[in-house]
Design brief:
Number of helices: 11
Oligomer: single chain
Distance between the termini: 47 Å
Helix content: 55-70%
Radius of gyration: 15 Å
Strand content: under 5%
Number of strands: 0
Structural class: mainly alpha
């Protein structure tokens, strides 16, 4: 089987997330596309992982389904690394992600998109404040793991307002 193109994986993500919306009512596929776009400087494989980063926890698809669809095993491995595992505390998950450069970049792009002020502004205040602190704490773990140049590359594409945090 031929390896799928980025367009093929985009279509797979769109089918997987069909009918889903995010916390502010936007079609969910737009979030994964934004995450993937922020990973463009790092190649097609990481963009594929960006498109698929939530399919294992938010859709019926399994890692085996992705492999059967021809998604490269390295892409599936990255998606698995950023997928929540029941019973694993969030901080522990972040530490595991930080140990893998590709997973850290993916989670940074995800965090940056989730932290966009125009998205956060549409949430109830209590949620906005809670999530803002959660995302800031995650950046303190993830950004050192990726390195400043790579953080600048991703965040500059996804949410340039966060670049001020780099100093």
């Amino acid at each position: 089987m031929a390896e799928p193109t980025l367009a093929d994986v985009d279509a797979l993500a769109a089918r997987a997330h069909a009918g889903q919306t995010d916390k502010i009512g936007v079609p969910y596929v737009e979030h994964v596309r934004a995450v993937a776009a922020g990973l463009a400087p790092f190649g097609t494989g990481l963009q594929m992982a960006g498109l698929l980063h939530d399919v294992l926890e938010d859709t019926p698809l399994t890692a085996e389904d992705l492999l059967r669809a021809g998604v490269p095993s390295a892409v599936v491995a990255t998606v698995r690394r950023v997928t929540k595992v029941p019973g694993t505390p969030y901080e522990e998950m972040l530490a595991q992600i930080a140990g893998d450069h590709s997973a850290a970049l993916l989670k940074i792009a995800d965090n940056a998109h989730n932290s966009l002020p125009e998205r956060a502004a549409q949430l109830p205040e209590a949620d906005r404040l809670r999530l803002a602190e959660r995302y800031r704490a995650a950046r303190r773990v993830l950004w050192p793991a990726a390195g400043e140049a790579d953080v600048r590359a991703v965040v500059g594409l996804v949410n340039p307002g966060l670049l001020a945090e780099l100093g």
